[in-house]
């Protein structure tokens, strides 16, 4: 192929639409930082650092998205958060 020839490449522009849901945890006056952190580690598989950051965001902003994914996967996790006394919902 000479340097003057142009190379053309077909690129697929097909877009996949992923509709992930998210679990949002809300601030309350009941749960301690340690309880929220421990629960996020246990239920959402957060690292200690992730869980601590989420707990601070919840405290200062009133809410934080703690997990995203398909609804079917999040439903069980949200139920466990609620059973642990956290205020959470799937959006």
What kind of sheet is the major sheet?
Answer: 3 strands, antiparallel
Straight-line distance between termini = 54 Å
Total number of helices? 3
Indicate the structural class: alpha+beta
Can you give the mean pLDDT? 90
> Could you list the spans in which at least 5 consecutive residues all have pLDDT below 50?
none
In total, how many beta strands? 3
Please write the string of helix (H) and strand (E) elements. EHHEHE
Measured as a percent range, the helix fraction is 40-55%
**Beta fraction of the residues?**
15-25%
Keywords:
91 residues, alpha+beta
Task: Describe what you observe in this structure.
α1 packs across α2. A 3-stranded antiparallel β-sheet has the order 2-1-3. The protein is 43% helix and 19% strand. The termini are far apart. By secondary structure, it is α+β, with helices and mostly antiparallel strands. The chain has 3 helices and 3 strands, in the order βααβαβ.
């Amino acid at each position: 192929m000479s340097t003057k020839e142009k190379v053309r490449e077909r690129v697929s522009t097909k877009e996949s639409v992923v509709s992930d849901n998210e679990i949002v945890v809300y601030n309350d006056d009941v749960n301690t930082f340690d309880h929220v952190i421990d629960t996020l580690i246990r239920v959402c598989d957060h690292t200690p650092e992730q869980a601590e950051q989420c707990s601070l965001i919840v405290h200062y902003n009133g809410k934080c998205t703690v997990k995203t994914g398909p609804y079917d996967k999040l439903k069980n996790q949200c139920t466990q958060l609620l059973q642990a006394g956290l205020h959470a919902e799937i959006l």
